[in-house]
Write a structure and sequence with these properties.
mainly alpha; two-stranded antiparallel sheet; 6 helices; binds zinc ion
Length: 120
């Protein structure tokens, strides 16, 4: 099938009442696909969702890895990176992940404390 045939077929399905849903992999959120979304989604799933989220693909992929690997804090400790989950990160959206990554607050409650109370 050509890309154009795929879009035409998807339109037929949608016109017949078939829903096209895709899933944000790590958190299981449903996303309704338009027929025109199908080809970009089939070709580059992560790139498609990154653009839907208004993020760069590397940011989206970093969010997926973070969610899939237990949302680790990653602060350096004497015994290696901290593996405790980041505070308030259950169900963290890709956008919220990117914002907290940029501000450096993807940390567990123990490692966030020095940031919340500077000098403490
Ligand atoms: Zn930590």
């Amino acid at each position: 099938m050509t890309d154009q045939e795929i879009v035409q077929f998807a339109k037929k399905l949608v016109d017949a009442g078939v829903q096209l849903n895709a899933v944000y992999e790590p958190i299981g959120c449903q996303f309704g696909l338009r027929p025109s979304d199908l080809v970009p989604w089939l070709k580059d799933r992560d790139g498609f969702f990154a653009s839907e989220c208004g993020l760069d693909k590397p940011e989206y992929v970093a969010w997926k890895d973070f969610m899939a690997h237990g949302r680790p804090c990653g602060a350096q400790t004497r015994s290696g990176p901290c593996r405790r989950p980041v505070k308030g990160s259950a169900g963290l959206s890709p956008q919220e992940f990117a914002r907290r990554h940029a501000e450096g607050t993807l940390l567990c409650s123990r490692h966030l404390k020095p940031l919340e109370r500077p000098g403490a």
